[in-house]
Design a protein that fits this description.
By secondary structure, the protein is an alpha+beta fold. It folds into two domains: 41 residues, no CATH class; 112 residues, Ribosomal Protein S5, domain 2 (2-Layer Sandwich), CATH 3.30.230.10. It has six helices and six strands; from the N terminus they run H-H-E-E-H-E-E-E-H-H-E-H. The strands form two sheets. A four-stranded mixed sheet has the order 3-4-6-5, sandwiched between helices. A two-stranded antiparallel sheet has the order 1-2. Strand 3 and strand 4 form a beta hairpin. The longest helix is centred in the C-terminal third of the chain and has 18 residues. The radius of gyration is 20 Å and the shape is globular. 17% of the residues are buried.
Length: 166
C-alpha cells in the first residue's frame, strides 16, 4: 500500500474522518511523530515473519550444532547455538521429544508456540550486527506449557545469547 494510502487509513482509524492538519505529517519508521490531538503515533517496522530462509533443515548443520555448538538453559527450554559467519539469516529449528509427549498433536502445538515466541522476539538477535547463529530450541518440560511461560523463557535465552561475547 502506498504511503499516502497508509496516511489516510491511519487518519480514519484515529479521527474517523480526514483532517487537513494531519495531511502534512510524514510517516517515518523508527521515529516518534508530532502529537496529534493528544495521541503520539509510533510506527516501528519489525520484520516479524518466519520465512523458509530462516528454517534450519540441514542434517549436517544440525549434527555440527550438537557437536561444536554451545547451549543455554532456561526452564523449560534448552537453546543450542552455533555462531556462523557464512549465512545471511539466523537459522532456527524447534524440537519436542517424543519421549515426553507421545501425541503428535501435543508436540506440534508446543512447536507452534515456540515458533511464535521466537518469531515475535527475534528482533533481539537482529540487533547484533554481523553475528549470525544456527539455533535449536528444545522443549524439555514434561507437561503442556502455557504460552506466556514459553515466551518468557525464549526472551531470556535470546537476551542471554545477545549479551554473550563470542
Amino acid at each position: 500500500m502506498p504511503l499516502a494510502e497508509w496516511q489516510i487509513f491511519i487518519q480514519k482509524i484515529i479521527f474517523g474522518r480526514q483532517n487537513n492538519s494531519f495531511q502534512n505529517t510524514i510517516f517515518r519508521p523508527h521515529s516518534f511523530l508530532k502529537p496529534v490531538r493528544s495521541f503520539f503515533l509510533y510506527i516501528y517496522i519489525v520484520n516479524q515473519k518466519f520465512p523458509k530462509t530462516e528454517k534450519l533443515k540441514s542434517a549436517k548443520t544440525i549434527e555440527k550444532l550438537f557437536l561444536e555448538g554451545d547451549a543455554h538453559f532456561k526452564f523449560p527450554i534448552k537453546l543450542f547455538f552455533l555462531p556462523k559467519q557464512d549465512i545471511e539469516n539466523n537459522l532456527v529449528a524447534f524440537a519436542v521429544p517424543k519421549k515426553n509427549f507421545k501425541s503428535a498433536v501435543d508436540r506440534n502445538r508446543i512447536k507452534r508456540q515456540l515458533r511464535e515466541a521466537y518469531r515475535l522476539n527475534k528482533h533481539l538477535l537482529e540487533e547484533i550486527s554481523g553475528k549470525k547463529f544456527v539455533l535449536l530450541f528444545l522443549y524439555l518440560g514434561k507437561v503442556k506449557p502455557q504460552y506466556d511461560q514459553l515466551e518468557k523463557a525464549t526472551v531470556k535465552l535470546l537476551k542471554k545469547l545477545r549479551d554473550e561475547d563470542i
